[in-house]
Amino acid sequence: MPRALMLVASSATDPSRHDEFNAWYEQHVQELLQLEGIISATRWEASEHAIIPGLDAIEGRRFLALYEIECDDVKLMRDRINSTSGDRTHSDLLELDPLPITMLFEHRGEWRA
Questions:
Q1: pLDDT (tens digit per residue) in 38-87
Q2: Using CB atoms within 10 A of its CB, is residue 67 exposed (0-12), middle (13-18) or buried (19+)?
Q3: What is the SS3 assignment for 18?
């Protein structure tokens, strides 16, 4: 089955409330995992050990979520994610200016050491 990866880079509106933001995000991830085709999710935080100094986040977004997708039609999956957005919980702690970066990548290969 074809594979895809959804990348979502985001930040919290209030850095002093990261614990609350992360708790909400955990719930949000669980809701996304209910969609047929999303088979796993992982969350990441920008490391203080940047490979290129000064580039320690994705265009200022501190958190990264990666969703692994298996589906026959990536466009249909994108439409399903977008059309069900109102069914998921949202938080005023999610930074919307600038908007989170959300991208879909289609699998093209895999290599391992």
A1: 999 999 998 888 777 766 677 778 999 999 999 999 999 999 999 999 99
A2: buried
A3: helix
Report the alpha-carbon distance of residue 73 to residue 90 in Å, rounded: 26
In three state form, how does the secondary structure of 21-74 look? Answer: HHHHHHHHHHHHCCCCCEEEEEEEECCCCCCCCCCCCECCECEEEEEEEECCCH
Task: Tell me the whole-structure pTM to 2 decimals.
Answer: 0.89
Task: Report which of 18, 17, 67 is spatially closest to residue 45, judged by C-alpha positions.
Answer: 18
Confidence check: pLDDT of 11 > 70:
yes
CATH for 3-106 (3.30.70.100, 3.40.630.30, 3.30.460.80, 3.30.300.30)? 3.30.70.100
